[in-house]
Every structure is written in structure tokens, then in C-alpha cells.
Write a structure and sequence with these properties.
With 298 residues, the protein is an alpha/beta fold. Strands 1, 3, 4, 5, 6 and 7 form a six-stranded mixed β-sheet that branches. The chain is globular, with a radius of gyration of 21 Å.
């Protein structure tokens, strides 16, 4: 199922809160950022999705088609239709030469073709594609996520998660709160034990597509799952506590690991409270994050 922004806000008004891993990660990074983004639903008016995110979404769309029909031409065409107009713009290097771009249509099509060739023999049955799931983990608190693929294999059910990333070599599977969330939700959805599988499609302009593919199983013990669930419930409890106190502390994590400034720095650096509302109206719009409708990429 998918929930609209209005549905989620109606639930919130009734004391029912829906979170996902992205929201919890924002809380852990900075409670004040969580307040602006998820309590007030603010987003910069000039915000633009990154090229990497456009690329990841286009790859997801192509793979969803391919796993359903095995039509390579249609899958590639869907990728091109989705990514055209969002390719990475060439940059000029220090010596005045134009640098080769990474996120391009040609690279994406080559990567997808390598994927099709490598995994065409995979005949496992796809039970569900891009399925949105939510489960109550505490009274009035639901944890949500969107599973990429739920497969039926000879050894049981498998939650397959696709990732596109420039940092594929450093991708951590354990602990991985996002994948633990998906594993929990998949098990709740099916009532069965579900194992996981990472399908990594790396992004690089120095490696061949064949070097950028990685399929790796992952599984968590019952003890690890319990520790994750207790932690998730505790984070949600602290969010609710901040809501009840009407105070969302700053953690001063203003620059991410990718050297991008937090979009709420203008609000957090105001010298007084007086211009706050006017700045919100001039720089931001209300667009709530939908944990039941988001496609997760990295």
C-alpha cells in the first residue's frame, strides 16, 4: 500500500506515527533537522535531487521491468526515459580540459547490460516488486520501508535490495539499520524467516561494468534483530519525548560526509527568533517525506 502525505498527517494528528530508516537516520544526525524536515515537512524551495539519486531511481525502474518481463530493450528504454535530462554535466579540470562524466546514459546502459548478461540465469520467482510495508513496533508507532524485491528461492524467501553507489567497496552490511529494517518487515509481511541479498551496481569511470557488480547474501541472528528492534523503539521514544517537550536539540552536524551543507543552516544560524517565520516562508515549502512511497538508494 502507499500512503499520501495527507493520510500520514491525519494519522499523526491521531497520535499514530510512521517512521522509516531515513527518518531515524536524520534524527540520529540532528534532532533539529528532524524537526524541520519531518515534523514541519519543510524543504528548500530551490532543492534539487542529486544526479546520483536520479540515476539510482532510473536503475530501479529498469530492473523492476527486467525482473518482471526479462525484456532487456524495454528495461533499457525505461532507464533512458527516466534519466534523460538528468545526466552529470561535464566539468573543467585544473588544466582546462573537460573531465569525463560518471553518471551518463552510456554508462548506465552499459552497466545494465552487464547486469542482464551476468544474472540472466537467475530463475528465482519474483513474488513482489517495490512493496511498501509498515509494522507497529510500539504503541502507536509504525516502522515502514519499501522492499525492492521479494524472491522465492529453493532455500526460502529472499529480500533482494538493489544499491547504486560510488562507494560500493565501503558499503557495510553488518550492522546495517536499513537492511535490518527490511529484514524485519519482510518477515512480518510473510510470517516466515527471510534472508537478504545485496545487489550492488557500483558507479565508477575507472572500472569496467563487470567489476562493478556484486551480489552478496546477508543474514542476521535473532539476537542482532532484537538489539536492532530495541534500538529502533528507543529512538522513536526519544523522538516522542522531544515532541512532548517541544524541544529539538541541535547536534551541529551541519556538513555531511559528502561536504554538503544542511539545508536548514539558514534557520539554525539566525541571530534571533524574530525573522524565523519570514525566512521559512521565503526559502522553504511544505513537502512531507513519505516513508511508504520512497525508493531507497545510496
Amino acid at each position: 500500500m502507499k500512503a499520501s502525505h495527507s493520510t500520514l498527517q491525519t494519522l499523526k494528528a491521531q497520535g499514530v506515527f510512521v517512521y522509516d530508516n531515513s527518518m531515524l537516520q536524520t534524527w540520529l544526525k540532528c534532532p533539529r533537522e528532524f524537526y524541520y524536515r519531518h515534523e514541519l515537512g519543510l524543504q528548500r524551495q530551490d532543492a534539487e535531487m542529486s544526479v546520483a539519486l536520479y540515476f539510482g531511481i532510473a536503475v530501479h525502474i529498469a530492473l523492476e521491468e527486467w525482473f518482471g518481463s526479462r525484456d532487456e530493450d524495454k528495461a533499457r528504454q525505461l532507464f533512458e526515459d527516466s534519466f534523460t535530462g538528468h545526466e552529470e554535466k561535464p566539468k573543467i579540470g585544473k588544466r582546462g580540459y573537460e573531465l569525463t562524466t560518471t553518471y551518463s546514459l552510456n554508462f548506465g546502459c552499459s552497466l545494465l547490460q552487464e547486469y542482464f548478461d551476468t544474472y540472466s540465469a537467475d530463475t528465482r520467482l519474483v513474488l513482489q516488486n517495490e512493496v511498501a510495508v509498515a509494522e507497529e513496533i510500539a504503541d502507536g508507532v509504525f516502522l515502514a520501508g519499501v522492499l525492492d524485491k521479494l524472491l522465492e528461492s529453493p532455500v526460502g524467501l529472499v529480500d533482494m535490495e538493489h544499491k547504486t553507489s560510488k562507494y560500493s567497496d565501503n558499503f557495510r552490511l553488518n550492522p546495517n539499520p536499513q537492511f535490518l529494517t527490511y529484514n524485519f518487515l519482510a518477515s512480518k509481511l510473510t510470517g516466515e524467516t527471510v534472508t537478504g541479498e545485496l545487489d550492488m551496481l557500483g558507479v565508477s569511470k575507472t572500472k569496467e561494468p563487470a567489476e562493478l557488480l556484486r551480489r552478496e547474501p546477508f543474514e542476521y541472528t535473532d539476537w542482532q534483530k532484537r538489539q536492532w528492534e530495541r534500538s529502533a523503539v528507543e529512538h522513536c521514544r526519544r523522538i516522542n519525548e522531544a515532541r512532548e517537550r517541544s524541544f529539538w536539540p541541535q547536534s551541529w552536524e551541519c556538513d555531511s560526509k559528502y561536504f554538503q551543507e544542511c539545508s536548514f543552516v539558514p534557520l539554525c544560524t539566525l541571530p534571533s527568533e524574530a525573522p524565523h517565520d519570514a525566512l521559512v516562508q521565503s526559502m522553504y515549502e511544505v513537502d512531507y517525506w513519505d516513508p511508504l512511497g520512497a525508493i531507497a538508494t545510496a
